[in-house]
Amino acid sequence: MKYKIFALTLFSIIFLGPTLSLQAQSAKKITNNKHAAYKKISGTQLYIVPPENYKESDRFNGYENILAGSSIMIFRVPGSVNENMVAFKRNKDIQKGMVVAREEMFLINGFDALLQAGVQFAHGKTYMRYVFVIGDMKNTYVFNASWYKDADFEKEAKRIRKALLGIIFVPEEDEAITEAFDFSVDFSACNLKPGNILMNSLVYTDDGQIPSQTEAKTAFMINESKIPFGEKHDNYLNKVIQSYPIDYSTKQDLEPKAIEVDGLPGLEFHAIGHNTKLNKSELIYIAVLFDGTTVYQLTGTSLKNFEARLPCFKKMARSFKRQE
């Protein structure tokens, strides 16, 4: 149940550079022992004791306190935690507008970890921020926590800090990223692979990398969001179509078609157009399925093999199932 109202902001960490050795920077040692209050974070190798009044979010991967306007979003990216931490050095903002005020290194149950504290100004409000990074030689987990700077912001900071530093990382308990979502598709129809990044959308690509490193860059993405109050289904789909930087030829049928998948009514659109950002022809397939105020968006794109990819995108979309 991961809504796409949160843009993915952490692709900037997926680059490698000189190794940042935490051992050389007086890391504070912490030992956490699992107990009944710990909860497994779906699709990860992590356990957490959520802060008081925080519930598992149905808007993103993580936890939130809706009344307090606080959230802890969780991302997973491949690669050594030491290499990925290069992107989190002091004075290198994780998100535009964030000012890093404090940075601490930790060794939690023997695993390198980094905690950054800062402040961010967005939408006319001031937010306090924690960015917490932990992992090993294969995987890196990033926690993005934010809360309003109000009269109780220091108490909230303590609660969130305690939860982050209480994380238990168990690399031998590897769990598929797809387990973090309450819906699924048959991705074998297009010979695709689950993406190697845990984000707010379920993504499959032709090589398992996000973004795909192949020439075709074939990808299929599924996300869940809320349809604006009073929005008509066809108008919603048109806004989705217009959000992509693609110019379409008029010599093709651009009229959406009605479909029904998993008992849900929906609309389906596909076309070949010119991607103005890539300056290449691209196939795009979009299906939107409506469940009351909830909408599931399934999007397939490819730069090659259009005739073969379109039917398999349709097959993937029709295999969509909600999980109990």
Beta-strand percentage range: 35-45%
Say what the CATH topology of the largest domain is. Protein Transport Mog1p, Chain A
Please state how the strands of the largest beta sheet are arranged side by side: 1-7-8-9-10-6-5-4
As residue ranges, the low-confidence spans are 1-24
CATH architecture of the largest domain, by name, is 3-Layer(aba) Sandwich
Elements, N to C (H/E) = EEEEEEHEEEEHEEEEEHEEEEEHE
CATH class designation of the largest domain: Alpha Beta
Amino- and carboxy-terminal Cα gap:
12 Å
Counting DSSP H or I runs of 4 or more residues, the number of helices is: 4
What is the C-alpha radius of gyration, as a whole number of Å? 21 Å
Fourth-tier CATH superfamily name of the largest domain? Mog1/PsbP, alpha/beta/alpha sandwich
Helix content: 10-25%
The biggest sheet amounts to: 8 strands, mixed
How many distinct beta strands? Answer: 21
User: What overall geometry do the principal axes of the alpha carbons give?
Assistant: globular
Number of individual domains: 2
Mean pLDDT: 85
Overview features:
8-stranded antiparallel beta sheet; 324 residues; 8-stranded mixed beta sheet; Protein Transport Mog1p, Chain A; 12% helix; 2 domains; mainly beta; 40% strand; globular
Can I get a quick summary?
The chain is mainly beta and 324 residues long. It has helices at 81-84, 153-165, 233-242, 306-318; strands spanning 28-30, 39-40, 46-48, 55-56, 62-65, 70-78, 98-108, 111-122, 125-135, 139-148, 168-169, 183-184, 193-194, 202-205, 219-226, 246-248, 257-261, 264-275, 280-291, 294-302, 321-322.
